[in-house]
Write a structure and sequence with these properties.
Length: 274
Amino acid sequence: MNRTMKLAGVLLVAVFLIAMLFPFFWIFITSFKSTGEIYGEGAFRVIPREPTLQNYLTVLFEKGILNAVKNSFIVAGTTTVYIIAVATLCAYAISRFEFRGKNLLLGLILAVSMFPQMIVTGPVYNLFHDLGLTNSYAVVLPYSTITLPTSVWILVTHFNQIPLALEESAKIDGASAFQTLYKIVFPLAAPGVFTTAIIVFIAAWNEFLLTVTLNSDVRYHTVPVAISFLRTQFEILWGQVTAATTIVTIPTLLVVLFFQKQIVSGLISGSVKE
């Protein structure tokens, strides 16, 4: 009976993994197919009959996908730095200081993260238009609406796991509040901060609505926006879309693969109350 249950569990996990990985595999093989093969008899062929690199050459040298990748790195990197800086200070204050309305503040932060982006996009566009900030990298500023609330919540959890006695000892030794934060608390909360930074980076990398609304100039398009414009009036260029998707997935995939231990460590360290 135990062996049967174990075998059933293995089969269930295998089916789940296949279902999760198959779309990525199909995108990858489709990127090597010509337009005729994608829509023709070879549409469901696993191995392309006549593999081609034309889709990759087109998106790299004609459609400007590398410029979009550069823009995504600038936007996602800048967003990650300033969001982590702000979220760290906010989360530390909420975790360590006692004040009225503390739980209400946490509830409001969580409520902000639940707002549909469509509600925020209109007012943000009007503000950016009046300030002359459209078609620029200033799009990183409204990114805080989708990344800051989650970051604060995650970091509050990690700061709560750090014993208060360590900070009290540092204060007795003459350390200021900022010295205590950056020399005592921050190193201990590093796994959580690192995990939060990865989550913020990926969220900013994949953001679409704000960028396509605020930056109509193709020079400032990020990866999701650039891929969405790989179409004609009557057709979606699936070969180019899959090739571009394969290219732009590599950076985030490498980040997750290289730092998976730190990510898991950060998620686990804030999930157990000591």
